[in-house]
Amino acid sequence: MKRRIVISGYYGFNNLGDEAVLAATVGELRRLIPDVEIAVLSAAPADTSRAYGVRGIPRSDLRTIVGVLRDCDLFLSGGGSLFQDATSWRSPWYYLALVAAARVLARHTMVYAQGIEPPRRPSVRAAMAFLLNGMDLITVRDVTSQAVLTELGVRRPRVVLTADPSLLLTPDWSVRVAAERARWGEGAWFGLAMRPWAGGEAVRAAGAAARITAERLGIRWALLPMHRPGDLAACEALAADLGEAATVVRAALGPREMLALIGSLDLLVGMRLHALLFAAARGVPVVPIAYDPKVTALMRDLGGPAPLSVASLHPDEIIGVVEAAVADRSARRTRLLAAVAPLRERAALAPALAADLLR
Question: Which of 120, 232, 316, 359 lies most in the core, judged by the most C-beta atoms within 10 Å?
Answer without folding.
Answer: 232
